[in-house]
Task: structure prediction
Amino acid sequence: MSGHGSGRHVAYTPPRLPIGAVTERAQAFHAALETRRSVRMFDPTPVPRAVIADLIRTASSAPSGAHMQPWHFVAVSDPTLKLRIREAAEAEERKSYGGRMSEEWRQALEPLGTDAVKPHLTEAPWLVVLFAQAWGVNPDGSKRKHYYVSESVGIAAGFFIAAVHHAGLCTLPHTPSPMGFLGKLLGRPKQERATLLLPIGFPAADCTVPDLQRKPLEAVSSWFEAPVVEQP
Result:
């Protein structure tokens, strides 16, 4: 059979919804995600480990190049380790804000009101670090090439962030650059590279976020539609 390769295949028969239901579900999902915001002010209320596990499972349902799933999530709730991560992140951020950033970059960040101090890294009940795996390891110890690593990990990150919001929690895609300290602190192997540091939790009671507007559909999409066929 053409296009099925040598691997085992199984039937995929999800229920086919009427187009009206499809439209409603697309609109409802957009309405839900439209309220998502990146949060830097967290309530310390604990979040069960099982919730974080389900969020990671959801992220791992993302498509990936050759189904290699070239990602690894590290979840941290230990206060001592969170503090060490915060201290290392702030050390890098001080270097960035102190001169490593270009003036153009600093101006782009100015409306957000960010600086080198990152209290959310110790206030949030969980930190989740997403690592990208440049290559995997076969059972015999040899290297296994991974394909489209950046694209695959980016999709998994999107799934994760959407799942966090759907669960009623908040997060912030934090990227203290460079992030090599995360691999060292968390004992990850050399083929893994930290890509995102994500605090997870409920927003603080006094939480505020920048008053930002998203680009309209017309600014983020182009359309080449099939011609409309008139019915006789």
